From TrEMBL:
Residues 1-26 form the signal peptide. It comes from Nocardia iowensis. It comes from the Bacteria. It holds the Pfam family Beta-lactamase. Residues 50-343 form the Beta-lactamase-related domain. This is Beta-lactamase family protein. Keywords: Signal.
């Protein structure tokens, strides 16, 4: 499974997946679980400090871990540990946007200018649909920041950013293509704007709408939108970023940071269990009617496998899986489900940046979905 581009992707960041470990909560097929554990251990041995996973399949629910919760220790991870989900949050935002479309309060063809006058140059040419499927051409705010391993990256660690400030950093740069809708170009800026549009439509904070419409009704008790709070509540692994110091690459603990820089594009904290529950509810039609779920699964560009906040991949065994992945720098995560929900996999890891784990990750996901 090839990677999907995520929030604030560091140039040195290798995407990775995770998998499972010891704790089984239903009667598993032992051989299958041993195989998953072995692949998970391989990912951690080569590319990560720690990893955690939840697999739901015909054998039940299996949660597990590999590696350590903190670098330089043998502290075990909690299989209920929380982590920053990065761009997986985009699917939550897109779901709320589409709910408002279903209620007649917003249209996919509404322009940015109609809701946020004067904020985006030529905003009358950019639609809500284009923000959702990354065809707006808006410059990605991620590109305006120093990235690891640059030491300057840490200068913004504790700063509080407003969505308007972040959007302004982006739109002073020219569009990456013209006209809007003519190509695909991943842009976190679009989701910052969607958060602002949600607030204009509802009169409340976008986080409150996500909580009211999704987190609360689904009972996602370990999912939160921290705003400016730097802490991850409850049990969680430590996350790290690479930094160049005195000519040497070092891992810096980046567990605590002000997540306002991610905003509606990826500030969310969650768990493997909550993410599996969310995607099960979404794909089963609990959150959106069929015609809007079909809109979500409509690709935004030719040969792209990304619709309105939802991604998909085709496995070697011919099974298509839907979901999203996220990169919050110190945390990387994947959450995918088969369309019939017979198999779901959510994995998260804290990368150590020794190399690119893509092949190991792909092997894990293929094992989980196909074997």
């Amino acid at each position: 499974m090839k990677r999907v581009r995520r929030v604030l992707v560091a140039a040195t960041t290798a995407l990775a997946v995770v998998a499972a470990s010891s704790a089984a909560t239903a009667a598993p097929a032992e051989a299958d679980r041993v195989g998953l554990q072995s692949r998970l251990d391989g990912v951690v041995a080569g590319y990560a400090v720690g990893a955690l996973v939840e697999v739901r399949d015909e054998h039940g629910v299996w949660r597990g871990t590999s590696g350590a919760a903190e670098l330089g220790t043998t502290e075990a991870l909690s299989d209920r540990g929380r982590f920053r989900v990065g761009s997986i949050m985009k699917t939550f935002v897109a779901t709320v946007v589409l709910q408002l479309v279903g209620e007649g309060r917003l249209r996919l063809d509404d322009t940015v200018e109609a809701w946020l006058p004067g904020l985006v140059p030529d905003g009358h040419r950019v639609t809500v649909r284009q923000l959702l499927n990354h065809t707006s051409g808006l410059y990605d705010v991620r590109r305006t920041f120093p990235m690891p391993p640059s030491p300057e990256f840490l200068d913004n660690r504790w700063r509080t950013w407003t969505a308007a400030e972040l959007v302004q950093r982006a739109v002073v740069n020219p569009p990456t293509f013209e006209p809007p809708g003519s190509a695909y170009g991943y842009s976190n800026t679009g989701y910052l704007l969607l958060g602002q549009i949600l607030e204009k439509v509802t009169g409340g904070l976008y986080g409150a709408e996500i909580e009211r419409r999704i987190i609360g009704p689904l009972g996602l008790g370990d999912t939160s939108l921290p705003g400016t709070s730097p802490r991850i509540p409850g049990p969680h692994p430590h996350g790290y970023v690479p930094t160049l110091r005195d000519g040497e690459m070092q891992l810096v603990d980046y567990t605590e940071m002000n997540p306002s820089v991610l905003g509606a594009a990826g500030e969310m904290i969650s768990t493997t269990t909550d993410l599996n529950q969310f995607f099960a509810a979404l794909l089963s039609g609990q959150l959106l009617p069929g015609h809007l779920l079909d809109e979500m699964r409509t690709p935004g560009g030719e040969d792209k496998m990304y619709g309105l906040g939802l991604a998909w991949q085709d496995t070697p065994c011919g099974v298509r899986v839907y979901g999203n992945d996220g990169d919050a720098l110190a945390y990387q995560s994947w959450s995918f489900s088969t369309e019939d929900l017979r198999r779901q996999v959510t994995v998260a890891l804290t990368p150590d940046f020794r190399g690119d784990p893509d092949d190991a990750v792909e092997a894990f996901l293929n094992t989980a979905f196909c074997d």
